[in-house]
Amino acid sequence: MPRRDSISWVAMIVGYAWSGYSEEALHLFVAMKIDCEIFIRSAFKSALSTCSNLVKVGFEASWFVRNTLLVMYCNCGSTEEAYHAFKEISNNDVVSMSMMIVGYVRHGFGNDALLLFKSMKTRSIKLDDKTVVGVLSACNHIGLIKTRKEYLYSMNQDYGITANYKHYTCMVDLFGEAKHLDEGHN
Fold it and tell me: How far apart are CA 175 and CA 59, in angstroms?
């Protein structure tokens, strides 16, 4: 087709999904987001629900498909659906756990993010810098200045992660909101 619209994209995505090509359907979904000038909300919902339904009815979805669903639900603000997708991932690793932590933080569930982080530590899952940014942001949302400082200072020692500008930005944001400007400046 010389020109594709949201309807033609969704038709292809649904066709792929129901034919058992879930990864291809999700790849088309990503391409649709890039190609479409007008991204119709109903098209997004249709593509997402089609892929989600395949997973719910027992379709053997890959790690990629399940993590993609997790990200899409988080981006839509559907944290409950994101959590269901997260629980369906049999071997939650640093990628899926970090995505869920960031999703929780983005939508105001800082306590849930920190509970998931504690679960990661209990299961000895190696953290990455994205996980730490999510954890620092969670501390910010629920006002845990002392805890956030401890995480920042221990990330290198305990997890081998070198702090970068994202980590320091989280700290400055926290100090600014808590009106501890002297600490934020240092």
Answer: 47
Please give the structure tokens belonging to residue 42.
Answer: 């109903």
Fold exhibited by the domain 92-186:
1.25.40
Write out pLDDT tens, residues 59-109: 555 676 777 778 778 877 888 888 988 887 877 888 888 889 989 998 999
DSSP H helices in 36-164:
41-56, 63-76, 79-88, 94-106, 110-122, 129-141, 145-159
Round to whole Å and give the CA distance between 164 and 23.
Answer: 33
Among 15-29, 111-125, 128-142, the minimum mean pLDDT is found in 15-29
Tell me the backbone φ, ψ of residue 164, rounded to 5 degrees: -125, -175
Q: Which two tokens stand for residue 149?
A: 């400082």
Q: Which residue bears the tokens 């400055």? A: 172
The sign of the torsion formed by the CA atoms of 27, 77, 66, 57 equals negative
Residues 166/129, Cβ–Cβ less than 8 Å:
yes
pLDDT of residue 49 exceeding 90: no
